[in-house]
Amino acid sequence: MRIIVQKFGGTSVASREGRQRACSHVEEARREGLCPVVVVSAMGRSGDPYATDTLLSVATAENPEVPPRDQDLLLSCGEIIAAVVLSGTLRARGVPAVPLTGAQAGIVTDGHHGDAAIVQVRTQRLLEHLRRGEVPVVCGFQGVTEDGEVTTLGRGGSDTTAAALGGALRAEVVEIYTDVDGVKTADPRLVPDARTLPVTTYDEVAQMAHHGAKVIHPRAVEIAMQSNVPLRVRSTFSDSPGTLVTFSVEAAGTAVSPLRPMGAVTAVTHVSGLAQVAVEVEPGDPRGLEMLRHLADAGISIDLINLYPDRKVFCIDERRAPRARAVLTGLGLAPRVRTGLVKVSVVGAGMRGRPGVMATIAEALAGAGVEILQTADSHVTISCLIQQEDLERAVRALHRAFGLGSGN
Ligand code: ADP
Ligand code: MG
């Protein structure tokens, strides 16, 4: 059996047009002799009637305290609605579809409500449907514990469901259908002339996702890489081939490589909503290190970390700023917290060992009048912390400086 997993995101299933287009992609796979397993997200985006946070607001309006277990039960409804509706669309077009909850599809998770990890996929039931020629339409973003508690998988959870199913079912490919036609050189909402990458590697796209390219979730990329299933990010609304994600760009074939920007940098990404925390300490003051453990115990993850003997600087999600401030003042420290910041990153496997990337970044940002507040780098990424109001100018300037636009 040749299996393909096809995941349709929120905007793809929200409208009748989107659902019809989704069905066409399913039918096309069937015509090619593939057995599709469909994964769906909740319909629409934030604010739409059945979107995940709309559901939550219904419960919090009644009582602001929704325990994590109850919250997961509620949040799982959005995908159930989408799976039933899309199954209806498919059946109306003559495709025998069967909507399944995460539990029914065999997605077993740990008990970490709100951010559960998939520990096992029991494929038996899915395989039975496929053998009968049916198309399972699986609710993304959700699973069930061994004890039968409904869980959700956290942000980007439907991508994770799709990748996990692809691995467990040994699918030929996992297709991630969304509202843009692939992984692009920058968020097209900020950079209209961003180009679609015909092919990229797991490593590169995971870095992009970690640094804010929300087109695919990093956990999904990791799962696909571990099980060696190729991913394809495509648009629901077009027939363009999208972006193939695999182990090596070269192995993907020469047909695509001439289109591939082979410069140092592949893409510019960004993460909004950050706060920078700076704490002055006397050198040798044990609180300078103890604070890291206290922040961790409070569930606050830190990024862009610079530790000097007399000064500790790092970034956090700005929504956690009040909590972080409370933790630090509780230790008798006097943190300075600056909110309204963004991290812009340039990502590219081609920058390994290549001199001048930081110089190009610094010049491009200075030329655009953007002040760099802090930097960090890894082997394939350089990140700069800047102010939110500089975001668009910064991303565009970097995109241009590295020759990523379609005009280049
Ligand atoms: P879905 O609901 O289909 O999962 P998402 O909103 O999660 O869709 O992801 C698609 C969005 O990701 C696009 O609309 C686009 O604005 C955004 N995005 C951010 N960075 C990138 C990028 N580098 N390439 C493509 N899309 C990006
Ligand atoms: Mg998404």
From TrEMBL:
ATP binds at residues 7-10, 178-179, 189, 214-215. PROSITE patterns: ACT, ASPARTOKINASE. It catalyses: L-aspartate + ATP = 4-phospho-L-aspartate + ADP. One of its GO terms (biological process) is homoserine biosynthetic process. The keyword Kinase applies. Belongs to the aspartokinase family. This is Aspartokinase. It comes from Caldinitratiruptor microaerophilus.
